[in-house]
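Hey, sorry to bother you again with one of my protein questions. There's a protein on my desk that I can't quite get my head around. No rush at all, and the record is pasted right below.
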Amino acid sequence: MQTDTAPTETAETTARWPAVLAVTAGIFALVTTEILPIGLLTSIGAEFSVSDGTAGLMMTVPGVLAAVAAPVVTTATARFDRRTMLCAFVSLLAAANVLAAAATDFGVLLASRVLVGVAIGGFWSIGAGLAGRLVPAAAGRATAVVFSAVPLGSVLGVPAGTFIGQLAGWRTAFAVLGFLSVAVLTALLLTLPPLPAERPTRAALLARVLRRAGTRFALAATVLVVLAHFGAYTYVTPFLEQVTGAGPTAITVALLVYGSAGIAGNLVFGALVSRWPRAAFAGVAAGIAAGTLLLPVAGRDLAGAIALLVLWGASYGGVPVCSQTWFARAAPDSPEAAGVLFTASFQATISLGALLGGAAVDRGSPSTVMALAGTTAALAVLVVAAHRRD
């Protein structure tokens, strides 16, 4: 019996890896779409005659909608096949990118970001915990592959989108993402097996998981770290332009270096968090605190700014996997519920960070944003250090 079973499990695991890669591609498209405005913020703001802070609403809007969509859409569709839902959310993402490319005013562009938020909330909540179901024999490795899409969105998606925007206009960058979304949809349809809902995620289940001490810690740490990161990173382009004095090509290179460091951080902290979860989370928060606090001082020349962006990028690269690990540890019996809470908290805080950062930019300066973000990340280090249970 043993001899017959092992090959079957190995063959099934191998056959499902294309599906894992398709889900990874879906998250890559979502992440790239969500944060693409960071690289195009000033050019979009200039076309529609809005300030940098107002242009930052392109980050705030999808975060708010994703935070709402994560629990609402996931519970409303709890009994639907998960394959069907993932394909529906990617279709919505494709439509959102096409609408953005054709936007006639800033209001239409924000409407497209509403659709992006719904797609993110639904896809992330289901997809974040799906790797273990697709390849249970290699659940840890498959989950790491899925989460590698987050730094890949920074290292490939945003710099590439920024470069395309500089060459052919920001609308072209969104149009390219629309084509990418259609390609991802095709891959999902071809590779994903039927995935009927196993344990429907209901509001009562979310409430029970939220009452757990581990969930509350994961929530507090995630909110502080993500608030610090996106409060500052949303406005990194204005900082590089106004404080560092970088031109368009230098900014693209800086974002590319930042994203490359994020991939390394994802690998390093992804390996550490399973053994030392508290130390890993404290490490990413401390790195973000140091990078953002030092930028106004040491980031006035390009070399100093890039060095600090490497530290910042490597640290943030570990944030999603550290956060998701803590939520999953708090609810090992309910992975989709953990995914919903992870997505909702992450996206709500992206929105809040972009909104508060925009207010600080418009009333102060990009350096003010960096200082406030560093202080918030330092507070996250204290919260993690005070948590006594791994």
In short: Confidence is low (pLDDT under 50) at residues 1-9.
